[in-house]
Amino acid sequence: MPHTLKLDATQSGAIEHAANLLRRGQLVALPTETVYGLAGDAANPRAVKKIFEAKQRPLGHPLIVHLSDPRRIEQWASKVPETAWKLIEEYWPGPLTLLLPKKDSVSDFITGGQPGIALRMPAHRATLETIKLLGRDIVAPSANPYGRVSPTSAEHVINAMSGRIDAVLDGGHCTVGIESTIVDLTGERPSIARPGQISQRDIEQCLGISLSGKSPSQQAVPGNVKRHYQPNTPTIGLPAGDFSEQFPRRAPKGARIGVIWWQSVPGPEATESTRLAADPDEYARMLYTAMHSMDQAALDYLFIELPPETDRWMAVHDRLRRACSR
Ligand code: TXA
Ligand code: MG
């Protein structure tokens, strides 16, 4: 069991230290604008294997390769369509992952045997510098145990992964707070494989076309499981319009109950409560932090007042649906 070192990205030498650990095949949780990633050297199969072990993630779930230079995509993708360059121009570095046809040389360990490779250039100075210093690309799934809530601070990583990884580079709280949008460019028409802060409409506007409803990879990939992003506390979602009426009836008597709400002030049945913003971007930024602190409060149940079902809330709804799926 490694001792997990905490490195402060603002201290001199911390980024060099993180890059050296990665060079030796060790695992370092790195900050990104979306969530913290559990990084390993993509060129080192033993490091890649250790990521699966540390997360207790089943093999066959593919990993995103993180780059510090967009031109590196040509090392991984067999074909880079014009649509990819347009999206890169508009959104990289940023919370957008591109799924492209992989080169034959790319290890099945990274792609889980899928025909595509997922690539992203994150918008976090410390992580971009770490990759540059390492001089190689990294693979980085979210730095949480399999199926659990992604970390949006170094403390979240330490709480869940301490002793299982070599270090965490503390780069502050993530500004986006939910995982990147994945755009699948392996099919005839681009499609969204995972919704995120960059919306379907944003992508359509950038490309000047309408996206296909179905992503060819979405069905095939085991990472797309229904139960995901789950707090340890059993979680129940209630629609905003019904919350005030349903919550007192559904809350088991005598239980310790947490509530994450945005519009309807919970009554005395709530032991703990946290209010999130009525704006989707601000809501997303704090959602996982709210879930992590509810998990620290030894509750029997967590109730979440669901936001409106409009397009701008799509990514948040995707995460909440999976968090509440039992
Ligand atoms: O924001 C993010 O994307 C974060 C940060 C750390 O960059 N990373 C992240 O990685 O969310 P992970 O492993 O937790 O989720 C990656 C998703 C999974 O649903 C996986 O199935 C999909 O991307 N994916 C990765 N590679 C793929 C591939 N080759 N084909 C299809 N889907 C892929
Ligand atoms: Mg994840």
From TrEMBL:
Residues the record lists as binding ATP: R57, S150, R194, Y229
Its EC number(s): 2.7.7.87
One Gene Ontology MF term: double-stranded RNA binding
InterPro entries named among the record's database cross-references: DHBP_synth_RibB-like_a/b_dom, Sua5-like_dom, Sua5/YwlC_C, Sua5_C, T(6)A37_SUA5, TC-AMP_synthase_SUA5
GO terms (BP aspect): regulation of translational fidelity; tRNA processing
Enzyme class: transferase
Role of this protein: Required for the formation of a threonylcarbamoyl group on adenosine at position 37 (t(6)A37) in tRNAs that read codons beginning with adenine.
Xref: PANTHER family: SUA5, THREONYLCARBAMOYL-AMP SYNTHASE
Protein name as catalogued: Threonylcarbamoyl-AMP synthase
Native source species: Marinobacter pelagius
